Amino acid sequence: MTQSKCKVLITRRVYPEAVELFRDRAELDYNDSDDRLEGAELLRHAQGAIGIVTPTSQQFKSELLSALTDLRIIANIGVGFDNVDVPAASKLGILVSNTPDVLTETTADFAFALLLAVSRRIVEANRYLLEGRWTRGSIDFLAGHDVHGRTLGIFGLGRIGASVARRGRGFSMKILYHDLRRASNDLEAELGATFVSKEQLLRESDVVSLHVPLVEETRKFIAEPEFRLMKKTSVLINTSRGPVVDEQAIAKAVQEQWIAGAGLDVFEQEPRVNPALLKLQNVVLTPHIASSSEDTRRQMCLMAARNVLAVLEGKCPETLVNRSVWDSAPKSS
Ligand code: 8YV
User: What is the end-to-end Cα distance of the chain in Å, rounded?
Assistant: First the structure.
């Protein structure tokens, strides 16, 4: 057990069960608010902390990490970890953890909800009705595109991508995917998924759904040249990270009808949304909530808290993204 109480910082309001886990086990500095800690304020709170529990909207750049000489672990509440300079953290011996698995199905549900909403123009139709514009119908009244029987192209067949593919199968969709590495034969067979090139996926898919992490190679992975390859009737769904898509290019592609629409939960500079996107009818925009079901967000908070507690107790956290730091660290017996 913990010999003396170590300082832990929770940078934003989390589910109370996660805070409770630290009771009597840490000296807690809890920012029980929805406002992000910025610059000097973040540094002041993080100073002396052994562990930090944080949503992925909080940035940890190398300069800040270098100043936090007591820090042993940053426990992200989220599967993504592009908010932390992981190479810098690793060099400094700081562990970084994330919350995979617990959010997979919830995020896949949401990606599919966007897929359905955009393809069948549900949000647009809702707006139409609420604005009192429904006075009569017509043969092609708010006609969208079918989902069943269409081709779903998935970039990144990891946990979330595969779960979206399963939902696609349930809707009798044909599944194409592209990834850095080909999936196992078993997974391909289970999903009925065909590995194709990036170009083929873009050319042949009716829905393109993004499930890649944000790394240098995936920045603006979908930009004007990619939109030009897509079908005019196709839709783009992004629940991964905003900078994976060139936001200006989506606005142009939708506006000029290179594609039929887009469903976007993530943006280049959150919480700012490119004003060009706000003017479009056939886009559905949501404020980064794909993993936001009560149960899942609670599980994510608990998992991040458990990862910090593990370090306080000298144990290996469940879900490290830089495991080599743990393996090479001297262990106290
Ligand atoms: C969350 C996410 O919105 O898991 C991720 O990487 O982006 C989302 O699930 C976010 O991490 C909440 O902190």
Answer: 12
Given a cut of 50, the residues of the chain with pLDDT beneath it are 1-2
Distance CA 191, CA 101 (A): 18
Question: 3-102+294-328 maps to which CATH number?
Answer: 3.40.50.720
Nearest CA to ligand 1 atom 10: 78
48/69 Cα distance (integer angstroms): 7
Over the Cα atoms of the chain, what is R_g? 22
Please say if 241 is a catalytic residue. yes
Amino acid at 149: G
* CATH class assigned to 104-285: alpha beta
Under a CB-based contact definition with an 8 Å cutoff, are residues 278 and 252 in contact?
no
Task: Determine the distance separating the centroid of ligand 1 and the alpha carbon of 139, expressed in angstroms.
Answer: 42
Give the residue extent of every domain in the chain. Answer: 3-102+294-328, 104-285
| Predicted pLDDT of residue 3 | 53
Q: Are 307 and 73 in contact (CB under 8 A)?
A: yes
Asked whether 100 lines ligand 1 (CB < 6 A), one says no
Q: Is 38 a catalytic residue?
A: no
Q: Look at ligand 1, atom 1, and give the residue with the nearest C-alpha.
A: 78
